[in-house]
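Quick note —
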Amino acid sequence: MVGVPIAGLSASTNASFTIDYGYLTLDCPSLWNGSPNDPELLKNLGYIYSPDGLAFQSYPNATRDGPLLYTTSTGDWVPFFLDTNTNFSIYEQYNGSSYLPDQNLIFGSVRYNPYAGEGYWSSVRNCTVQNRYVEAKIGCNGLECSTKALRPSSAYSQLNPALTMLCNPTIFGHLAFDLSLSFAGATHPTRGASSATELFIEGIDPYGDFTAFQNDSGTDIIVMANLSSKVFARRLSIVLNTFMNLASAPGSFAGNLPAPSVSAWGPYGNGSINYTAVAQGDYSQVVSPFFAHNATATLLTLHEIYVCNWLWFAIYLSSTLLLIVVTLCGTILKHMCLGPDMFGYVSSMTYDSALFGLPPGGTLDGMDRARLLKDMRCRVGAVDGTRGPHVVFAAESAPYATSAVVALKRKMKYV
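Predicted structure written out below.
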């Protein structure tokens, strides 16, 4: 749920580069359900929860009910447990070429529902752990980065995938204790309550409605046995990778990382880290917030550039000039034309008009009448009327012309 921390980016620059990194993968083919006090289960517990395991060395006054650990100092019941029965000395003696078996990881979800006559009940998965190394192509738009492509890492192809961080007993011990004790319960810190980690693995919103998952006492419980092995392994690997990344370098995920220093940030040049200063945003006391490797990036600074397509520019310019010419011609012709605009069929103005000398009436429609009068020349002029001169439409020449029709005058006012 967290990515690879990257420092040295610029908000005004786009960057692309490749990195190699590894992450934990799990394979959890086997599932066991039963009482946490079952002798078969207790026999297979190891480094953490066996009778002489780390849990009871760290908490000598602890009480137990199977692997369910209760500490008198903090009052915490473990909602789920992590353990391994792998011999750590095998990994400590590894010389780079000898056989190295995959480490096993035991995950057990413990629920408590005495009101249903069930009591304690465990769903236990036995998984194997490996490291998977990949090469990732990263693209960054300012400070926001995403993975564009993935492929197996060629730089780390010779590394044994069975050698992981969890092969260190100290790291595994911290993981087993800190992860399982980080939440006593999602909403009820009582024994048997499901933790937020279990809710995530089960695919349930930790902030959602738990009514369907509560027992008769109101304690949240879920049944981890319903998940397929593939889904369980994928979600638990997300939990482990997230926890290990945040636990090993918490200061690197706080944001606003300073510009990296090659001498201080290199994998062999790191000094101590003041996490209090990192949390407060004071990097003056910080040598480096995480073990860093250099990556060569291609940087792009984007600027807006306008490019002219001369063909389209010529078409645009020609169209604009043509519109200007048409507009000017229309304006000149409008100024030269003294007569008003006349709408409709012109032939309708010839009906019963004394200025055309045509027989009155008629049964022809407008189009037929206009077709028969196609050779007649007409004009717009003015005649004197009882209320003053007014504009008329008349025949231009004999035998239809009338001497009373005169040309329009610009300064004359017509009715």
